[in-house]
Specification:
The complex is a heterodimer of chains A (about 80) and B (about 850).
Chain A lengths: L13 E4 L2 H11 L8 E3 L3 H6 L6 E8 L3 E10 L2
Parallel strand pairs in A: 2-4
Antiparallel strand pairs in A: 1-3, 3-4
Chain B lengths: L11 H7 L50 E10 L4 H10 L31 E4 L3 E4 L2 E3 L1 H10 L19 E7 L8 E2 L5 E2 L2 H21 L4 H19 L20 H5 L5 H6 L7 E8 L7 E5 H6 L1 E5 L5 H10 L6 E5 L5 E3 L5 H7 L5 E5 L5 E5 L9 E9 L4 E3 L4 H4 L7 E5 L4 H11 L19 H10 L5 E3 H10 L15 E3 H6 L8 E4 L19 E5 L2 E4 L4 H4 L5 H33 L12 H26 L11 H27 L4 H8 L5 H8 L3 E2 L1 E2 L2 E2 L24 E2 L9 H36 L3 E2 L5 E2 L5 E3 L19 H8 L1
Parallel strand pairs in B: 8-16, 9-15
Antiparallel strand pairs in B: 1-5, 2-3, 3-4, 6-7, 8-17, 9-16, 10-13, 11-12, 11-13, 14-15, 14-17, 18-19, 20-21, 21-22, 23-26, 24-25, 27-28, 28-29
Classes of the chains: A alpha+beta (about 80), B alpha+beta (about 850).
């Protein structure tokens, strides 16, 4: 399966790494520190594919039949 | 106010400091029957006799919480509940200097030395229940304690010990619980009977004393060791009398003693029995029965119950006269049971003193009045699986002996009337009453948060009735229509105005109930899914159109007003509010019943009469199918069967046969639809009130294939299911095909197959409910502290975000239309 790009699979939603500034804004918006965000492991295939590092926040844009798009955020963590 | 609770060990000093008395004597009472000082019932430990005052705090019984005492143990003993902890500590510390020398328990035979003192590390062995061995030599609790004492304070955090000392795990002083938690009871004969704990403590004191005497008199070591061991046993069973490896301490009668652990543990223990499952006042429980004529938010309360349950009412100028009347009634409903004077004195109202009390009443008095019509109460049926299991109802006092409820509210409670009992609770304060009314009243729970449709809706006869009434050819005399509407509590001219005609159509009658601002179009149950829908001109009258609260066309059935499906009901709830939906539901359900009363509704065996020639047809069809199956079987033996992917030849054969036999049912279906006489049984099935087409077919034509676990029936004797068949027979009859109908009667083996199938259904149901109940319980416990915060994030108890939008789509299922947003109807009804 060399060269298979999981990001192009139709069941994998779009993943974006947030910039430092966007991350700060997000934490401010919800008045939380990063520990209160949902987590994702660094060894997750998608995290590897987009090259995120522990401490990064990933924005996941999911498609939803009823409401179009739903965004979700996850903090990349070490094991 | 309790600010925090800390769980930990008591130090010996602390135990002595808490102690009100040292217990040294084995006698409990002296010759005159008074408790001995220094005995286990020492008066300093609290009072359990009414009238006496406590020697320690001076309070009376009820106010004195009791006080601990203590026993000085002559020799230390191991705390039985911490034997594992002690073992784990011993494995990681040096037994000479007490330093922690290893992160992991020391294993293996390689000799090691302590890095701090250089002593050789010994292997520790723990033998249940409380023996520790160092290199094979038994440690006595004294030596054990000495090792634990050596562990320096700064090493404790490495052991995971906070705020305590490990040597406290070996007891030198035993706290004696206050008498209030082990009261003695005086039997009718005047004999005293002591609590199990007291018995156990007497044993401890006795052995402790004996051991002390033996040590002082210089008894030989083996005697002292034996007594020490005995003391250890008694202290261990005092904490837990169900330790494996120890014989249970028994009462004289042979009953095992209930000691500390036994008091707390298990379903009958303190936690699950007394704390999680408390009993409450102001509640009632009795059998339930149906009453279709009361409103959905009412509950019929027996007079006997209404006279027992009370609500406290504070007297003001405004309600003085009213309350005075109630007091004068005393125990005659509606009356009152007690008055509470402003000084807090309670007085029972009897017929004799009623007048006297009534005169005395003035603002500031509180009257505990009987339950009256219209009071708010909470009504509940176990198992309480969802929030609709407890709802607030309005009281309606009845002369009977059961709680009565409207049939429409059976589904949320999952109640039927085969002997079910339900509970009723009376909120006492006006705050509680208001809260119940706003949050919990039945009408607020019509739409279920589970699937976004009405969980409270019309059932059975309500649907049959409305179906018959709203059929195209139903017309009523004006007078009859008027009468029916009045019967269901509608006021002429206010709630309804009939069209100025002599013959009123059923649709017009039904229209009187629909709120005027409702507009909608939907397909009824009768819809056959034609390729091109002719809408208003539907030949089956299956296209429902409601314009400005008038039923223009279409027939009302389960898809309009039924539970879980009723579109019209759902719409009324959404656009007219819960109160209007409540009224609508009450009226529609009663209209259905009333119409059936006038028309007559009955079903009998002749509902299932199918013309003889049609029955011949089906028999012929079955014969033909059998021949085809026989051909399949021949093919199978000749190895010519068409093999399906992923199946063996035999499995393929089974699949082919099942497919063939299913054909019989679909043939029968067509036949029944065309030839079954127009009957009330058919009405029930067509309107979705009760019964399916399959039920009709099975009764009238042919029961069809019986299955076990989705296959033909193969279980039974060797090589055959029943002795009616040949060995290895593969024919339809031999494996559960029933060609008779329920009406014509089943032969012996057909009947047996049918019963097998029936039993499978029964087993399935009971096993499934058990499993799903437990799974649901676990899920609820896991999710119970999730909450939607004010910023619309879902967070758990630690305020960690679980979802950024509730449900990932932001739709509240309890306000949705079957989980979605019904844009079409929102437009129709709001613009």
């Amino acid at each position: 399966m060399a060269g298979f790009n999981i990001l192009k699979h139709r069941l994998v939603p779009e993943h974006v790494i947030l910039s430092e500034e966007e991350k700060k804004k997000l934490l401010e918006k919800y008045n939380i520190d990063e520990k209160q965000l949902p987590k994702i492991l660094v060894r997750d295939p998608v995290v590897k594919a987009i090259g995120a590092k522990p401490g990064d926040v990933i924005k996941i844009i999911r498609k939803n039949e009823l409401v179009g798009e739903v965004v979700y955020y996850r903090l990349v963590v070490k094991e | 106010m309790i600010e925090n609770i800390k769980f930990g060990l008591l130090s010996p000093q602390m135990i002595k400091k808490m102690s009100a008395a040292e217990i040294t004597k084995t006698e409990i009472y002296d010759a005159d029957g008074f408790p001995v000082e220094g005995g286990l019932m020492d008066p300093k430990l609290g009072v359990i006799d009414p009238g006496l005052r406590c020697r320690t705090c001076g309070e009376r019984m009820g106010n004195c919480p009791g006080h601990f005492g203590h026993i000085e143990l002559v020799k230390p003993v191991v705390h039985i509940l911490y034997t594992k902890t002690i073992y784990n500590i011993l494995r990681v510390v040096c037994h000479d200097c007490g330093r922690v020398i290893s992160k992991k328990p020391l294993v293996g035979k390689s000799k090691r030395t302590c890095p701090y003192c250089g002593a050789e590390v010994k292997t520790v062995k723990f033998e249940k229940p409380y023996i520790y061995k160092l290199d094979g030599k038994t440690l006595n609790p004294q030596e054990l304690r000495e090792i634990l004492e050596k562990i320096p304070d700064e090493d404790l955090s490495k052991l995971g010990i906070k705020g305590g000392r490990p040597e406290w795990l070996v007891l030198t002083v035993l706290p004696v619980p206050p008498v209030t938690m082990r009261p003695s009871i005086t039997l009718e004969t005047g004999e005293r009977s002591e609590d199990d704990l007291t018995h156990k403590l007497v044993d401890i004191v006795r052995i402790n004393k004996l051991l002390n005497e033996n040590i002082l008199s210089g008894a030989p070591d083996f005697i002292i060791d034996d007594l020490w061991e005995l003391l250890q046993y008694h202290v261990a069973t005092y904490f837990d009398n169900e330790v494996s490896g120890l014989p249970q301490a028994r009462h004289r009668s042979g009953r095992p003693l209930k000691t500390l652990a036994q008091r707390l543990k298990t379903k009958e223990g303190r936690f699950r029995h007394n704390l999680t499952g408390k009993r409450v006042n102001f509640s009632a429980r009795t059998v339930i029965s149906p009453d279709p004529m009361i409103s959905i938010n009412e509950v019929g309360v027996p007079l006997m119950v209404a006279k027992e349950l009370t609500i406290p009412v504070m007297i003001r100028e405004e309600n003085l006269d009213e309350m005075r009347k109630l007091v004068l009634n005393a125990d005659r409903w509606p009356g009152a049971n007690y008055v509470i004077r402003p000084d807090g004195k309670r007085k029972k109202i009897t017929r004799e003193n009623a007048e006297e009390i009534a005169k005395e009443l003035s603002p500031g008095y509180i009257v505990e009045r009987h339950l009256q019509n219209g009071d708010i109460v909470l009504f509940n049926r176990q198992p309480s699986l969802h929030r609709m299991s407890i709802m607030a109802h309005r009281v309606r006092v009845t002369p009977w002996r059961t709680f009565t409820l409207n049939l429409c509210v059976c589904p949320p409670y999952n109640a039927d009337f085969d002997g079910d009992e339900m509970n009723l609770h009376v909120p006492q304060t006006i705050e509680a009453q208001a809260e119940a009314e706003i949050l919990m009243e039945v009408q607020h729970h019509i739409r279920s948060p589970r699937f976004g449709g009405p969980i409270i809706g019309c059932e059975q006869d309500h649907i049959s009735g409305c179906f018959l009434l709203t059929k195209k050819d139903t017309f009523l005399e004006r007078s009859k229509a008027f009468q029916i509407l009045c019967e269901i509590g509608m006021r002429p001219g206010i709630d309804f105005t009939l069209p100025k005609k002599n013959k009123i159509s059923g649709k017009d009658v039904f229209s009187m109930l629909i709120p005027k601002n409702i507009n909608t179009e939907f397909k009824a149950k009768a819809c056959r899914g034609c390729e091109k829908c002719r809408k208003e001109k539907c030949p089956y009258d299956a296209y429902v159109v409601v314009k400005n609260g008038k039923l223009v066309c279409g027939v009302i059935d389960s898809k309009a007003i039924g539970r879980e499906k009723g579109k019209l009901l759902s719409l009324v709830e959404k656009f007219c509010g819960t109160e209007e939906a409540h009224k609508f539901l009450d009226r529609v359900s009663q209209l259905g019943i009333r119409y059936l009363d006038h028309r007559g509704f009955t079903c009998g065996l002749d509902d299932y009469d199918i013309p003889e020639e049609n029955l011949q047809d089906i028999r012929k069809y079955i014969e033909k199918t059998k021949q085809r199956v026989n051909k399949l079987i021949e093919k199978y033996y000749a190895n010519e069967i068409e093999i399906l992917p992923g199946r063996t030849a035999k499995e393929s054969l089974e699949a082919h046969i099942l497919a063939e036999l299913k054909g019989v049912l679909s043939y029968a279906e067509k036949l029944v639809l065309e030839n079954l006489p127009k009957s009330d049984s058919l009405v029930m099935s067509q309107s979705g009130a009760r019964g399916s087409l399959v039920n009709l077919i099975q009764i009238s034509t042919c029961v069809g294939q019986e299955t076990l676990l989705g296959e033909r029936i193969h279980r039974g004797y060797r090589k055959r299911v029943l002795s009616h068949f040949n060995w290895n027979e593969l024919s339809p009859e031999a494996h559960g095909f029933v060609k008779s109908s329920y009406k014509s009667g089943l032969n012996v083996y057909e009947f047996f197959f049918d019963v097998m199938n029936g039993r499978e259904g029964l087993m399935d149901k009971s096993l499934r409910t058990k499993h799903s109940g437990y799974m649901e319980r676990r899920l609820m416990n896991a999710l119970q502290d999730l909450k939607v915060e004010y910023d619309f994030t879902v967070r758990d108890g630690r305020k960690v975000i679980v979802q950024f939008v509730p449900g990932e789509d932001g739709i509240d299922p309890a306000k949705s239309d079957w989980g979605e947003i019904d844009v079409e109807n929102i437009l129709l009804n709001t613009i």
